[in-house]
Design goal:
This protein is an alpha+beta fold. The protein is built from two helices and 20 strands.
Length: about 260
């Protein structure tokens, strides 16, 4: 295969990945707590272009090697953890994290997941769970004789008894990471820690650099429609140019074949 075709093909694959990334961001525009991703690229190692054997040059041809680019490759799909817009829902168990931090949940395999999606509910055993039914990593149990359960900005979970008295049942804790971009996304608005993210730092909301909780609200995705649409147009133009390179090479090869005929 011609080197031009290899270079153009790498560009096509890179821009296809870029478009898929942008499309996924737009698809999750209304996903609570979603954090957009950005495709990143790097050039492939250049290859030497050597002169044809038998030709003569003023100096040794090994010194005349010219490095030629060999294309592009996707280097990363970076997760951007900028804040999303806070949307008021007035639901007592909805919480938005205003600042750094993640809610901790217990996954079915026993591992710990982390999420920014604060749409919470109560399961049959009285424990707080996410929309997908994953229990929050806490020992808080809400007895069936209590009602009007609420979560305040400090993470305190309170409820009223039959006499109308407020009882505090416990406090939700948040976790933050030295490098949140290193977290591994596992779907359903969940992340898991990795070596790149570093170990979690756990604490009460509003302490140790952790954000506060805003009750009755949810954090929207941080996807900017105008920015994503602009990036989509740029990716489309780049894809078209790679296609044009393939078409131009095809025309050149056709001219060579016609000369031979």
């Amino acid at each position: 295969m011609s080197s031009v075709l290899r270079v153009a093909a790498s560009g096509l694959l890179a821009q296809q990945f870029n478009l898929e990334t942008i499309a996924n961001n737009l698809a999750n525009l209304d996903t609570a707590g979603y954090k957009r991703t950005r495709a990143q690229f790097q050039d492939l190692p250049p290859a030497p272009l050597r002169y044809v054997a038998g030709e003569t040059f003023p100096i040794d041809k090994a010194l005349n090697d010219v490095l030629v680019g060999t294309g592009v490759i996707v280097s990363a799909n970076q997760r951007l953890f900028g804040p999303g817009t806070l949307t008021v829902t007035n639901q007592p168990l909805d919480v938005a994290i205003n600042g750094d931090g993640f809610l901790q949940v217990q996954l079915p395999d026993g591992s710990i997941g982390y999420t920014r999606d604060g749409a919470l509910g109560i399961d049959g055993s009285g424990r707080l769970v996410t929309e997908n039914g994953y229990r929050l990593l806490s020992d808080i149990v809400i007895p069936p004789n209590l009602h009007d359960v609420q979560i305040d900005g400090s993470g305190a979970v309170v409820a009223r008894n039959a006499a109308g008295e407020i009882q505090q049942l416990g406090t939700l804790q948040l976790a933050r990471f030295p490098n949140a971009a290193g977290l591994s996304a596992i779907g359903r608005n969940l992340f898991q820690s990795t070596t790149a993210s570093g170990p979690p730092v756990v604490g009460d909301p509003g302490s140790n650099g952790l954000g506060d909780l805003i009750a009755g609200a949810l954090e929207s995705s941080n996807v900017d429609v105008a920015e994503e649409m602009t990036k989509m147009i740029e990716a489309q133009r780049a894809y078209e140019m790679s296609v044009k390179a393939v078409q131009t090479l095809d025309q050149m090869l056709g001219m060579v074949n016609s000369m031979r005929a």
